[in-house]
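Morning F.,

Quick status update on the modeling queue. The single chain you submitted on Monday has been processed. Sequence for confirmation:
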Amino acid sequence: MAGSNVQHTIEKICEAHGGISRWRKLEAVEAVISVRGFLFKAKRRPTLSRVRVRASIGEPEFTFYDYPSTGRNSVFMGNEEVRITDAGHQVLVSRQQPRAAIRRLRRQLYWDALDFTYFGGYATWNYLVTPFLFTGDGFKIDMLEPQSNGLDYPVVLQVDFSPEFPSHCRRQIFYFDHDFLLRRLDYTAEVVSRWARAAHTCEKYRGFDGFKFPTKRRVRPLLIGQKPLARPVIVAIDIHELQLKEATD
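Structure tokens below.
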């Protein structure tokens, strides 16, 4: 991150979402979510209905509980490994370097449970820890001019992620409203396809323990320009419950 203006804007954004000082006292975000959309059909994966999840605050680690089946947990552990465990945390199956593996030819036809664990794990982890994520190292953040296409987003950030960071792509655009709440992010989901450019909207903000999270997220194709297609909805995420877990000494 460079520039005092950018730093001041990030501070305002974090304050609007709950405050960075309080965020740094947390250990994890836990939620109950449902996820569906065209991507699940395209990759032949079952949708998620009220699945409990946990996103670690201090590192890129994410768990889907009782998924892909009851008594089985899917665990994303950064770009190094994904695994499926039993209820006692015994590893049943795992895959090293899952980002490299998901680019192989078979994944164009369908994903297995470990493929989804990688994609769903890094994506949902990113969603739950943004914008506080940007107070860490490894990001180049620039302020852009607001769009002149009717979008009422006065704060626009261009964020360059480090090459090794588990996310959709290296460069993403984040749009914030007049209250500094995140309303949209644009990216290319490279593990799906280098053509999978999308606009991801954030709606229905709710308060949870003093923090604000969007409980309705929709991802739609962004083919040309800045206006997404109405259909199909590639991914639809709904948050039903959310808890902030404080770190224990």
